[in-house]
Structure formats: C-alpha cells, structure tokens
Recover the amino acids of this structure.
C-alpha cells in the first residue's frame, strides 16, 4: 500500500511539472541604456497575461521573459512593443522551460 501511495504521489508531482511547462524568450534589443529603460519594459511585460518572470540585462541588450504554457509572443508583436517604447527589436529565441 505504501508503494502505491508513493508511486501515485511521484506521478502527480511529475505531471504537475508537465502541466506548468511554459516558454523562455530571449529578445535582443538595441537602445536599452539605463534602469529607467529596463523598468519601462518590465512594466509593459508585467501587464501582459501569462508573463511569469522578466529580466532585463542592459549590458547585453537582452530581455528574457518566462511565460506560462498558454502565452506566446510573435516577432511582429515584439517589434511593435519595443518600437512603441523607443527601442529597436532585433531577434527572439524561444525555448521550452
């Protein structure tokens, strides 16, 4: 009985990780020069549904965003977001989490 309970528990924990799988986005952006730039970008992404984590690396010009399994970003969407914020969007790399 203990073995069945333990096995069930482990399977549920593994399944929970699969349900929570999202995407990791790395976006190259030109023009990020100061903490206020980073704050403005963070604010825009935090307002979006499904965004779980955001990080802006000013030195590398890199914006990383983790999303839930339901949220996806397109190049067109990111180009508009960054252009509207005064930055130049270059490219995006997407990987599963």
């Amino acid at each position: 009985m203990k073995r069945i309970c333990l096995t069930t528990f482990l399977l549920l924990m593994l399944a929970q990780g699969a349900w929570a799988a999202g995407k990791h986005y790395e976006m190259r952006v030109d023009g990020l020069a100061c903490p206020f730039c980073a704050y403005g970008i963070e604010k825009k992404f935090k307002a979006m549904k499904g965004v779980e984590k955001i990080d802006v690396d000013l030195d590398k010009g890199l914006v990383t965003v983790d999303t839930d399994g339901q949220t996806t970003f397109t190049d067109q969407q990111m180009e508009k977001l960054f252009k509207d914020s005064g930055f130049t969007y270059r490219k995006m790399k997407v990987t599963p989490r």
